[in-house]
Amino acid sequence: MTRQPHQFLSAVGTAVIAALFVAGCTKTKQPPQPVAKATAEAKSEAAANVKQVPAPAADQPADAPTIAIGDLVKKLAAAADSGERVLVIDEIGAIGQNALPALDALVAAFADADPRVRWHATRAVGLIGEDARSALPAIVKLLTDADPIVVTQAAAALGTIREDDGREQIPAADAATYAAVIDPLAGAAVHPDGRARRAAVRALRRYKSLADMGPIVTKQLADADPGVVISALQTLADMGDDAVPLLTEALKDPKSRYWAEVALAEIGPDAAPATAVLAQAAEEGATEERLQAILSLAAIGEPAASAAPVVVKALDSEDAALHLPAAFALGRMKASAGDESLKKLAAGDDPFLGSVAAWSLARIHPDDKQLVEDAVARLRKGLAHPDPDARAASVNGLSDLSDTLADDARAQLAGEFLGLLTDADPETGRAAGAALIRLGGAAVPGLRAKLADPALRLNVMEILSAMGPAAKPAIGELVTALGDADPECRGDAAVAIGAIGADAAEAVPQLQTLVADTSAADGLRYAAAYALGKIGPAAAAAEPVLRELSQSPDELMATVATWAGLKIKPDDASQFEHAIPLLRRALRGDREMVRLEAAVALGDIGPAAASAIPILELVSEEDSVKQVRAAAAAALAKIRAK
């Protein structure tokens, strides 16, 4: 392909390491998107997160009554609206392979005007398994549907039907039907929507061997359109270890090697199985490919330590462009094989390269007080570097070493990071915020003082929100901020209070007053309701007003109030009937926090939330956020518990 790596690595040096320090340091939770800022867009069905359809249950009764299927087909035909049709289709889907008599009715539903009906029907067909082979051409047509959720579910159903066909010898006619699916699936693998791409790639693995998948991945990564390349990388990286075998194959093709390396770096430690092939790539080819291979090994970290000899060789090579990433990678791997070479660089004339080498030595030998102090001193100097990339890298490097420091040194670092929140370089400011979050309690005193600064207080509240319970010492200032004249400040304060959780019970009276204030902005009331829910049973005094708001004509207000009421009184079954439909819809929202909390709440309801199983199944596989997928999977386990 024609590629210009320097579009993405504009300079081999500080920019690379600044970015990789962020990826390479222990993952720091970023500030969440406040519920206070959620809008009606969370209601959009098009934002639903969907799943690869599971294979039919192995314990499905072979003699399931066909009469019930007939009744359900009649019920589907008589359904008065799309909502009712969806519920009936889900009943059919729950029967699995024994729903074959309903196949024609389900395929007919592919033409429904409501995309919800189309994707639920496609899911139900997939649950029938290999006996639904005759529907493959109709499902393939849905790969061009205008709704990305329908496309996603169509791809998933195609994969499930093929996976369910366990015959050793596939008759020629069926083999031809299966073969006709591959090209349309490959087209969906570069769909604009990430969920559709993910489902298509997963489905293709059911039709093609790993070796045969290589050319398909190569085509994505070698595409001349940067938009397609970046989209493909996002999809493959989000698939995590599922994508590693495909990317390892792509490393073997010069046309796709560079982009496969980039995707593996995004995956991080889960890409460890690719270590040997990455090590080989680090020894040969163009400099930018070798450099990216080393950075990918750095992102994998300690599990890639077997590649240390190759990285040391790059560190000692005459190619100066490899020295910085190699020094960084050895620190990430905690590989002592390069100690002597790192010490030479630390004593050299390049101050930034020397600071990276010193950081690596401190990472490799965290118990060596002298090495740690040397690295911290060098990186502190870097905080004032004129190059913004060097400043950001210094912040991230110090943050990575902060866990090895004494309390007074951590507090001193917090003060320096606070001063960088208003850095002229936005990336440096973001790095400082993430570093403060990582420092936790050591940073809270300084953050409390900054809450009085109008230029900083919103940023400070976001940082406190991400700290969670560690921010409890700031509860007094946050409660005071609930009365601020600025609605945005009040909303952010409510979210930060909610993040503290049960320890923020003293804020309940003010939050209760705020959520009941009909003159307040909607977003502010959403935030107050959210905070009350996060406080939980200790906010019992607010439960009556939340119950009243759960009937609000504002669906988002009703959803947040209902969720909060469940968190305060989780065993109150009288709320379930009203809550479950709202929480199902919330699972389709744009906001990560909303989806996560909805999944948790449905799991807390337990078996009574069985009607949410289809959407939870979908979210548990195809949500773009790992934590949301995990929450949905945990909710399914609770709902299905005997």
Question: Overview of this structure, please?
Answer:
- With about 650 residues, the chain is mainly alpha-helical.
- Among the domains are: about 55-210, Leucine-rich Repeat Variant, CATH 1.25.10; about 475-640, Leucine-rich Repeat Variant (Alpha Horseshoe).
- About 65% of the residues lie in helices and about 0% in strands.
- The chain is built from 36 helices and no strands.
- The protein has helices at about 5-10, 15-25, 65-80, 80-95, 105-110, 115-130, 135-140, 150-165, 170-190, 195-205, 210-220, 225-240, 245-250, 255-265, 275-280, 285-300, 310-315, 325-335, 340-345, 350-365, 370-380, 390-400, 405-420, 425-440, 445-450, 455-465, 475-480, 485-500, 510-515, 520-535, 545-550, 555-570, 575-585, 590-605, 615-620, 625-640.
- Helix 19 packs antiparallel against helix 20 and helix 31 (about 545-550) packs antiparallel against helix 32 (about 555-570).
- The termini are far apart.
